[in-house]
Amino acid sequence: MTKDIDIIAVGYPSLDRIIKTEDSISIGKTSIIQNSDNSKIYYGGCNVNIAYTCAKLSLKSMLMMRVGNDFQSTGYRDFLQDIHICLDGIEVIEEDVTSNSYLIENDMGNHITLFYPGAMSDKYPVHIDEEIIKRAKYGVITVGNLEYNIAFAKACINENVPIIFGMKCDFKAFKEDALKYLLSSSTIIFMNEGEKKEIKKLFNLKDICDLFDNGRCKCLVITQGKNGSLILCKHNGKIMKETVPIAKPDKVTDTSGVGDSYIAGFIYGLVHKMSYMDCGKVGATVASFIIEEMGCLGNVPSEEQLKERYKLNFINNL
What we know:
This protein is an alpha/beta fold. It is built from nine helices and 13 strands.
Protein backbone atom coordinates (compact mmCIF):
# COMPACT_ATOMS: atom_id res chain seq x y z
CA MET A 1 0.00 0.00 0.00
CA THR A 2 1.14 3.54 -0.76
CA LYS A 3 2.40 5.43 2.29
CA ASP A 4 0.43 8.63 1.65
CA ILE A 5 0.45 9.77 5.30
CA ASP A 6 3.63 10.85 7.11
CA ILE A 7 2.21 10.40 10.62
CA ILE A 8 -0.90 9.15 12.37
CA ALA A 9 -1.16 10.53 15.91
CA VAL A 10 -3.31 9.12 18.73
CA GLY A 11 -4.15 10.47 22.17
CA TYR A 12 -6.66 12.72 23.87
CA PRO A 13 -7.90 15.67 21.82
CA SER A 14 -8.66 18.64 24.04
CA LEU A 15 -10.46 21.93 24.12
CA ASP A 16 -8.13 23.86 26.43
CA ARG A 17 -8.71 26.89 28.61
CA ILE A 18 -5.63 28.50 30.14
CA ILE A 19 -5.92 30.13 33.55
CA LYS A 20 -2.98 32.10 34.97
CA THR A 21 -2.79 32.87 38.69
CA GLU A 22 -0.42 35.02 40.72
CA ASP A 23 0.25 32.28 43.25
CA SER A 24 -0.24 28.55 43.74
CA ILE A 25 -3.75 27.19 44.17
CA SER A 26 -4.59 25.70 47.56
CA ILE A 27 -7.78 24.40 49.19
CA GLY A 28 -9.75 27.03 51.10
CA LYS A 29 -7.98 29.94 49.43
CA THR A 30 -9.21 32.16 46.60
CA SER A 31 -6.70 32.67 43.79
CA ILE A 32 -7.05 35.68 41.50
CA ILE A 33 -7.00 34.95 37.77
CA GLN A 34 -4.52 37.17 35.95
CA ASN A 35 -5.40 36.65 32.27
CA SER A 36 -8.56 38.18 30.78
CA ASP A 37 -8.69 35.54 28.02
CA ASN A 38 -9.20 32.73 30.57
CA SER A 39 -12.43 31.58 28.88
CA LYS A 40 -10.93 31.39 25.39
CA ILE A 41 -10.82 27.89 23.92
CA TYR A 42 -7.51 26.69 22.53
CA TYR A 43 -7.61 23.59 20.36
CA GLY A 44 -5.14 21.08 21.71
CA GLY A 45 -4.27 17.66 22.99
CA CYS A 46 -0.74 16.32 22.56
CA ASN A 47 -1.67 14.32 19.46
CA VAL A 48 -3.43 17.31 17.90
CA ASN A 49 -0.53 19.63 18.73
CA ILE A 50 1.91 17.30 16.99
CA ALA A 51 -0.29 16.57 13.96
CA TYR A 52 -1.18 20.25 13.49
CA THR A 53 2.43 21.41 13.73
CA CYS A 54 3.56 18.72 11.30
CA ALA A 55 0.82 19.77 8.86
CA LYS A 56 1.89 23.43 9.13
CA LEU A 57 5.39 22.23 8.21
CA SER A 58 4.00 20.66 5.02
CA LEU A 59 3.86 17.07 6.28
CA LYS A 60 0.81 14.87 5.69
CA SER A 61 -0.81 14.30 9.08
CA MET A 62 -3.73 12.19 10.24
CA LEU A 63 -5.48 11.96 13.61
CA MET A 64 -7.02 8.80 15.02
CA MET A 65 -9.28 9.57 17.99
CA ARG A 66 -12.86 9.95 19.21
CA VAL A 67 -14.55 13.36 19.46
CA GLY A 68 -17.92 14.48 20.78
CA ASN A 69 -21.08 16.10 19.45
CA ASP A 70 -19.42 19.52 19.75
CA PHE A 71 -16.68 18.73 17.22
CA GLN A 72 -18.33 20.92 14.59
CA SER A 73 -19.94 23.59 16.80
CA THR A 74 -16.71 24.44 18.63
CA GLY A 75 -14.91 25.00 15.33
CA TYR A 76 -12.56 22.10 16.03
CA ARG A 77 -13.34 20.28 12.77
CA ASP A 78 -12.78 23.38 10.64
CA PHE A 79 -9.59 24.17 12.55
CA LEU A 80 -8.13 20.78 11.57
CA GLN A 81 -9.50 20.73 8.03
CA ASP A 82 -8.17 24.21 7.29
CA ILE A 83 -4.59 22.96 7.80
CA HIS A 84 -5.36 19.85 5.69
CA ILE A 85 -5.12 17.26 8.47
CA CYS A 86 -6.70 14.00 7.32
CA LEU A 87 -9.76 13.17 9.45
CA ASP A 88 -10.33 9.62 8.14
CA GLY A 89 -9.44 8.16 11.54
CA ILE A 90 -11.83 10.31 13.61
CA GLU A 91 -14.95 8.78 15.19
CA VAL A 92 -17.78 10.98 16.54
CA ILE A 93 -19.54 9.96 19.78
CA GLU A 94 -22.89 11.75 19.60
CA GLU A 95 -23.86 11.22 23.26
CA ASP A 96 -20.81 12.96 24.71
CA VAL A 97 -18.59 16.00 24.19
CA THR A 98 -14.96 16.26 23.12
CA SER A 99 -12.45 15.88 25.95
CA ASN A 100 -11.46 19.21 27.48
CA SER A 101 -8.96 20.73 29.91
CA TYR A 102 -8.37 23.64 32.25
CA LEU A 103 -4.65 24.42 32.44
CA ILE A 104 -3.84 26.40 35.58
CA GLU A 105 -0.43 28.09 35.70
CA ASN A 106 1.13 30.13 38.51
CA ASP A 107 3.71 32.88 38.17
CA MET A 108 6.54 30.35 38.53
CA GLY A 109 5.37 28.51 35.41
CA ASN A 110 4.12 25.46 37.35
CA HIS A 111 1.00 23.78 36.02
CA ILE A 112 -2.09 21.98 37.31
CA THR A 113 -4.31 20.30 34.70
CA LEU A 114 -8.02 19.54 35.16
CA PHE A 115 -9.27 17.14 32.49
CA TYR A 116 -12.60 15.67 31.35
CA PRO A 117 -12.07 12.66 29.00
CA GLY A 118 -15.48 12.92 27.31
CA ALA A 119 -15.66 10.97 24.05
CA MET A 120 -12.26 9.38 24.77
CA SER A 121 -13.55 7.81 28.00
CA ASP A 122 -12.88 4.09 28.39
CA LYS A 123 -16.65 3.43 28.51
CA TYR A 124 -16.72 3.66 24.70
CA PRO A 125 -15.46 0.75 22.54
CA VAL A 126 -12.17 0.99 20.65
CA HIS A 127 -12.23 0.87 16.84
CA ILE A 128 -8.83 0.81 15.11
CA ASP A 129 -8.85 0.42 11.33
CA GLU A 130 -5.61 -1.31 10.30
CA GLU A 131 -6.22 -0.36 6.67
CA ILE A 132 -5.71 3.24 7.78
CA ILE A 133 -2.61 2.34 9.81
CA LYS A 134 -1.02 0.82 6.69
CA ARG A 135 -0.98 4.23 5.03
CA ALA A 136 1.37 5.79 7.60
CA LYS A 137 5.15 6.12 7.72
CA TYR A 138 5.07 6.62 11.51
CA GLY A 139 2.57 6.12 14.32
CA VAL A 140 2.73 8.64 17.16
CA ILE A 141 1.41 7.75 20.63
CA THR A 142 0.74 10.46 23.22
CA VAL A 143 -1.27 10.61 26.45
CA GLY A 144 -4.66 9.08 25.75
CA ASN A 145 -7.14 6.33 26.49
CA LEU A 146 -5.03 3.36 27.57
CA GLU A 147 -7.00 0.68 25.73
CA TYR A 148 -7.04 2.82 22.58
CA ASN A 149 -3.29 3.45 22.70
CA ILE A 150 -2.45 -0.23 23.20
CA ALA A 151 -4.73 -1.27 20.33
CA PHE A 152 -3.09 1.35 18.11
CA ALA A 153 0.41 0.16 19.09
CA LYS A 154 -0.48 -3.45 18.28
CA ALA A 155 -1.88 -2.40 14.90
CA CYS A 156 1.32 -0.46 14.12
CA ILE A 157 3.43 -3.50 14.99
CA ASN A 158 1.21 -5.74 12.85
CA GLU A 159 1.65 -3.37 9.89
CA ASN A 160 5.39 -2.68 10.50
CA VAL A 161 4.78 1.02 11.18
CA PRO A 162 7.48 2.45 13.51
CA ILE A 163 6.11 3.89 16.75
CA ILE A 164 7.12 7.28 18.15
CA PHE A 165 6.19 7.53 21.84
CA GLY A 166 5.75 10.86 23.62
CA MET A 167 6.37 9.70 27.18
CA LYS A 168 4.41 11.22 30.07
CA CYS A 169 4.56 10.13 33.71
CA ASP A 170 0.79 10.08 33.93
CA PHE A 171 0.07 6.74 35.54
CA LYS A 172 -3.67 7.06 34.97
CA ALA A 173 -2.97 7.21 31.24
CA PHE A 174 -0.02 4.79 31.29
CA LYS A 175 -0.27 1.98 33.85
CA GLU A 176 2.89 0.03 34.59
CA ASP A 177 2.30 -3.00 32.34
CA ALA A 178 1.03 -0.85 29.49
CA LEU A 179 3.92 1.56 29.87
CA LYS A 180 6.39 -1.30 29.72
CA TYR A 181 4.69 -2.58 26.55
CA LEU A 182 4.76 0.83 24.87
CA LEU A 183 8.39 1.46 25.81
CA SER A 184 9.45 -1.92 24.40
CA SER A 185 7.35 -1.42 21.25
CA SER A 186 8.55 2.06 20.32
CA THR A 187 11.33 2.96 17.90
CA ILE A 188 11.79 6.52 19.19
CA ILE A 189 10.98 7.60 22.76
CA PHE A 190 10.73 11.16 24.11
CA MET A 191 10.87 12.01 27.81
CA ASN A 192 12.03 14.77 30.13
CA GLU A 193 14.46 14.47 33.05
CA GLY A 194 11.72 13.83 35.60
CA GLU A 195 10.17 11.12 33.46
CA LYS A 196 13.58 9.52 32.96
CA LYS A 197 14.02 9.20 36.72
CA GLU A 198 10.55 7.72 37.14
CA ILE A 199 11.14 5.14 34.40
CA LYS A 200 14.48 4.09 35.89
CA LYS A 201 12.87 3.70 39.30
CA LEU A 202 9.72 1.97 38.07
CA PHE A 203 11.56 -0.64 36.01
CA ASN A 204 14.69 -0.88 38.17
CA LEU A 205 17.04 0.26 35.39
CA LYS A 206 20.65 1.08 36.20
CA ASP A 207 20.78 3.36 33.19
CA ILE A 208 18.07 4.71 30.89
CA CYS A 209 20.09 3.28 27.98
CA ASP A 210 18.99 -0.18 29.15
CA LEU A 211 15.84 0.54 27.13
CA PHE A 212 17.90 -0.14 24.00
CA ASP A 213 18.28 -3.75 25.12
CA ASN A 214 14.63 -4.39 25.95
CA GLY A 215 12.74 -3.81 22.72
CA ARG A 216 12.67 -1.93 19.43
CA CYS A 217 14.13 1.38 20.60
CA LYS A 218 16.65 3.02 18.25
CA CYS A 219 16.63 6.55 19.68
CA LEU A 220 15.97 8.13 23.08
CA VAL A 221 15.41 11.86 23.38
CA ILE A 222 15.60 13.45 26.82
CA THR A 223 14.48 17.07 26.86
CA GLN A 224 16.20 19.26 29.46
CA GLY A 225 14.40 22.60 29.37
CA LYS A 226 16.72 25.58 28.93
CA ASN A 227 19.66 23.16 28.71
CA GLY A 228 18.43 21.73 25.42
CA SER A 229 18.02 18.02 24.79
CA LEU A 230 20.10 14.87 24.97
CA ILE A 231 19.92 12.56 21.96
CA LEU A 232 20.92 8.94 22.52
CA CYS A 233 21.00 6.38 19.73
CA LYS A 234 22.50 2.96 19.20
CA HIS A 235 24.87 2.56 16.27
CA ASN A 236 26.89 -0.58 15.57
CA GLY A 237 26.34 -1.77 19.12
CA LYS A 238 27.52 1.48 20.71
CA ILE A 239 25.47 4.19 22.40
CA MET A 240 26.02 7.57 20.78
CA LYS A 241 25.21 10.69 22.82
CA GLU A 242 24.95 14.32 21.80
CA THR A 243 23.48 17.39 23.47
CA VAL A 244 21.44 19.70 21.25
CA PRO A 245 21.14 23.30 22.53
CA ILE A 246 17.91 25.28 22.48
CA ALA A 247 17.14 27.63 19.62
CA LYS A 248 16.75 31.21 20.80
CA PRO A 249 13.17 32.57 20.89
CA ASP A 250 12.38 36.26 20.41
CA LYS A 251 10.54 36.23 23.76
CA VAL A 252 9.15 33.80 26.34
CA THR A 253 5.39 34.00 26.94
CA ASP A 254 3.98 30.52 27.58
CA THR A 255 5.61 27.09 27.86
CA SER A 256 2.43 25.11 27.03
CA GLY A 257 2.97 22.68 24.17
CA VAL A 258 6.73 23.14 23.89
CA GLY A 259 7.41 19.40 24.24
CA ASP A 260 4.85 18.53 21.57
CA SER A 261 6.32 21.08 19.17
CA TYR A 262 9.78 19.62 19.72
CA ILE A 263 8.45 16.17 18.78
CA ALA A 264 6.79 17.59 15.65
CA GLY A 265 10.03 19.23 14.56
CA PHE A 266 11.92 16.01 15.21
CA ILE A 267 9.40 14.15 13.03
CA TYR A 268 9.92 16.71 10.26
CA GLY A 269 13.59 15.76 10.32
CA LEU A 270 12.80 12.04 10.27
CA VAL A 271 10.52 12.36 7.25
CA HIS A 272 13.26 14.31 5.47
CA LYS A 273 15.84 11.58 6.23
CA MET A 274 17.93 13.70 8.61
CA SER A 275 20.19 12.26 11.32
CA TYR A 276 18.75 11.96 14.82
CA MET A 277 21.03 14.78 15.98
CA ASP A 278 19.81 17.11 13.23
CA CYS A 279 16.21 16.06 13.95
CA GLY A 280 16.79 17.32 17.49
CA LYS A 281 17.95 20.67 16.15
CA VAL A 282 14.78 20.97 14.08
CA GLY A 283 12.75 20.10 17.17
CA ALA A 284 14.51 22.80 19.17
CA THR A 285 13.86 25.34 16.43
CA VAL A 286 10.14 24.61 16.20
CA ALA A 287 9.84 24.74 20.00
CA SER A 288 11.40 28.21 20.03
CA PHE A 289 8.39 29.59 18.13
CA ILE A 290 5.74 28.00 20.37
CA ILE A 291 7.15 29.51 23.56
CA GLU A 292 6.68 33.03 22.16
CA GLU A 293 2.86 33.14 22.30
CA MET A 294 -0.03 31.85 24.42
CA GLY A 295 -1.35 28.36 23.78
CA CYS A 296 0.11 25.17 22.38
CA LEU A 297 -0.61 26.22 18.79
CA GLY A 298 -0.50 30.00 19.08
CA ASN A 299 2.66 30.53 17.05
CA VAL A 300 3.31 27.46 14.90
CA PRO A 301 5.90 28.35 12.23
CA SER A 302 5.58 27.76 8.52
CA GLU A 303 8.19 25.62 6.81
CA GLU A 304 9.92 28.75 5.52
CA GLN A 305 10.02 30.35 8.98
CA LEU A 306 11.48 27.13 10.35
CA LYS A 307 14.23 27.08 7.74
CA GLU A 308 15.14 30.70 8.38
CA ARG A 309 15.45 30.34 12.16
CA TYR A 310 17.20 26.97 11.88
CA LYS A 311 19.93 28.60 9.81
CA LEU A 312 20.27 31.47 12.32
CA ASN A 313 20.75 29.05 15.21
CA PHE A 314 22.57 26.11 13.66
CA ILE A 315 24.38 27.72 10.68
CA ASN A 316 23.50 25.02 8.15
CA ASN A 317 20.50 25.06 5.82
CA LEU A 318 17.69 22.56 6.23
